[in-house]
Amino acid sequence: MILLDAYAVIALLTGERAMEEVSDILRGDEPVGMTGVGRAEVIDQLARTRGVDPDSLRADLAILNFATIVSIDATIGDTAGVIRSAVYHRSTCAVSMADCCLLASALHHGAAIASSDPHLLDAAQRVGVATVPLLDTSGRRWQPR
């Protein structure tokens, strides 16, 4: 399974550079999902920063028909807290709690994550989560260290 981070879904919905890569992932053989927290991030970001109607966003997300929407239960939440406490640094690894919920979900489900966020991808490498690095808004791609 591949879990998409919020940026990947935003790129798909808004035509950003990673749109084609995300489309390819969705058309691939691997099941694709996202976390409920990631879904919330997509709605928040596009409604708040771009003025997109939340009902329209929910309809767009429904059309994508992800194989899995991962709920954050106590086990995943606990793991997310442990991950953030281990990897977070405000300048060198500024991962959000939503990022850590994605990482914990990936660990729990044996999934890879697709993202262009270098901090998230660095953290994934540190905790042993497989990655699918996407192009960022400037056309760069994260490289493992």
Structural account:
56% of the residues lie in helices and 12% in strands. It is an alpha/beta fold and 145 residues long. The chain has a single domain (2-133), classed as 5'-nuclease (Rossmann fold), CATH 3.40.50. Strands 3-2-1-4-5 form a five-stranded parallel beta sheet. Strand 4 (112-115), helix 7 (118-127) and strand 5 form a beta-alpha-beta unit. The chain is globular, with a radius of gyration of 14 Å. The mean pLDDT is 95.
Query: Order of helices and strands, N to C?
Result: EHHEHHEHHEHE
The CATH topology corresponds to Rossmann fold
Which oligomeric state applies? single chain
Radius of gyration: 14 Å
**Please, how many domains?**
1
Mean pLDDT: 95
Structure annotation, total helices: 7
Looking at this protein, list some descriptive labels.
7 helices, 145 residues, Rossmann fold, globular, 5-stranded parallel beta sheet, alpha/beta
Could you provide a short overview of the structure?
By secondary structure, this protein is of the alpha/beta class.
Helix and strand topology:
Blueprint (H helix, E strand, L loop, with lengths): L1 E3 L1 H9 L4 H9 L4 E4 H15 L3 H11 L3 E3 L3 H14 L9 H13 L2 E4 L2 H10 L3 E3 L12
Parallel strand pairs: 1-2, 1-4, 2-3, 4-5
Helix pairs in contact: 1-2, 1-3, 3-4, 5-6
